[in-house]
Amino acid sequence: MLKTAFCHLLILLGATLIALQAADTPTMPKAATPPEFVTITDDPKLPRVLLMGDSVSIAYALEVRKLLAGVANVHRVPANCGSTKVALGYYGLKRWLPDANEKWDVIHFNHGLHDLSYRFADDRDKNDKGEYASPTNGGHQNVPPGEYEKNLRQIIARLKQTGAKLIFASTTPVPESDAAKYVKDSELPYNEIAKKVMTEEGVTWNDLWSLVKPRQAELQIPRNVHFQAKGSSVMAKQVAQMIQNALPARQTQP
After folding, report:
1. Which pLDDT belongs to residue 7?
2. Contacts from 208-211 at CB under 8 Å and sequence distance 24+?
3. Angle at the Cα of 99 (from 96 to 105), degrees rounded to 5?
4. Quick one: pLDDT at residue 11?
5. Count of beta carbons in the 10 Å neighbourhood of residue 115
6. What is the mean pLDDT of each run of 10 residues along the chain (254 residues)?
7. Which distant-in-sequence residues (6+ apart) come within 8 Å of 207 by Cβ?
8. Contact at 8 Å (CB) between 102 and 159?
């Protein structure tokens, strides 16, 4: 009996020790959802707008929402939408627009920076040495120009099913970059293709490239495809204005 009681005591002490250790171990907080990705509640009296695009568009999303407060419900796809290849894959439009019958008034979208960036044959943008893929070390563009055009047309076909007026933002300038996967001026042929496609498909062209290019040194982070806060603000104002111009006329009560 003494042996049994001793065993029970050991078990009890062990359980107490585990409980104390658990109490002293800090729990990891859940990662907070970026504010740009937080789901908003629609005001049913206002039209619905969707922003879809890469990290450049993420950076101006909150200001666009603020500028259109009381004018439109501005939603944002809760992801970096990456390349046209991503948009058409399992991670893309199937998740971003899961309801085939969901209606939008305006969709403002962009793809380009992730399409023109370089990758290695294994689809990584860096090798084991930490070197970025580039034209000089066996890298290839993630989505070649011909495929980019085909992909854009497929994306537009899906977006048109929502009944929305579509606005496409041109790819912003690519400078000499510390991330060598971005090659200076590589956006130019992609923008030419995109403008041709948008014209033929009846999609409004929002030329953010022309907006920021003359002020590139002032607005863009040095040797980086991303922008200073001031640059994102400049783009937000034009994006908001383009969206407002595309919104249906508001009905006034008699």
Report:
1. 45
2. 208/110, 208/169, 208/170, 208/171, 208/172, 208/235, 208/238, 208/239, 209/170, 209/171, 209/172, 209/173, 210/170, 211/235, 211/238
3. 80
4. 45
5. 27
6. 44 43 48 89 97 98 98 97 97 95 97 98 95 96 98 98 98 97 98 98 98 98 98 98 92 42
7. 170
8. no
- Domains, the chain, with CATH or none: 32-115+143-246 (3.40.50.1110)
The alpha carbon of 176 is separated from its chain's Cα centroid by a whole number of angstroms, namely: 22
- Cβ atoms of 147 and 88 closer than 8 Å: no
Q: What is the pLDDT of residue 234?
A: 98
pLDDT given at position 32: 85
Tokens of 251: 């009905």
Query: Per-residue b/e over 26-47, b at no fewer than 16 CB within 10 Å?
Result: eeeeeeeeeebeeeeeeeeebb
Look at residue 117 and give its three-state secondary structure: coil
> 3-class DSSP state for residue 73?
strand
Query: For residue 248, what pLDDT is reported?
Result: 87
CA 246, 248, 253, 254 dihedral sign is positive
Q: What is the pLDDT of residue 2?
A: 41
Residue type present at position 249: A
252: Cβ–Cβ under 8 A, 6 or more apart, which residues? Answer: none
Tokens 């300038």 -> residue: 173
